Amino acid sequence: MSTINAAEVPVADGLWTVTEVAAFLKVSRSWVYHRLESGLLPHIRLGGLVRFEPSAIRAHVSSGCSLPGRRGASATIRSAR
């Protein structure tokens, strides 16, 4: 399994993969998959592929989404379901 360094996250606004989103958010790939399957992370399905609009992920983070290690994260996740 290859890992991606956060510094390697593309700056261009092409669609991101799960690995790139995980690196950008500094979380595991499984965390990203869990959140997208729960409907808590904006994503695009292209057949069997999952991709992310970088601007949507940045806006989601700016809006105060919950990330692991942030205070009050579990309360935010529970109320969003």
Give structural notes:
Helix content is 42%, strand content 7%. By secondary structure, the chain is mainly alpha-helical. The protein has one domain: Multidrug-efflux Transporter Regulator, Chain: A, Domain 2 (Orthogonal Bundle). Strands 1-2 form a two-stranded antiparallel sheet.
Provide tags for this entry.
81 residues, mainly alpha, Multidrug-efflux Transporter Regulator, Chain: A, Domain 2, two-stranded antiparallel sheet, 7% strand, disordered C terminus
In short:
The chain has helices spanning 18-25, 29-37, 54-62, 73-80, and strands spanning 44-46, 49-51. It has 81 residues and is mainly α.
Largest sheet: 2 strands, antiparallel
* Overall pLDDT level: 78
Number of helices: 4
Tally the structural domains.
1
- In what range is the share of β-strand residues? 5-15%
Report how far the terminal alpha carbons are from each other. 31 Å
Question: In CATH, what is the class?
Answer: Mainly Alpha
Radius of gyration: 12 Å
| CATH architectural category | Orthogonal Bundle
Which class do the helix and strand fractions yield? mainly alpha
The number of strands is 2
Proportion of residues in helical segments: 40-55%
Contiguous uncertain segments of 5+ residues: 71-81
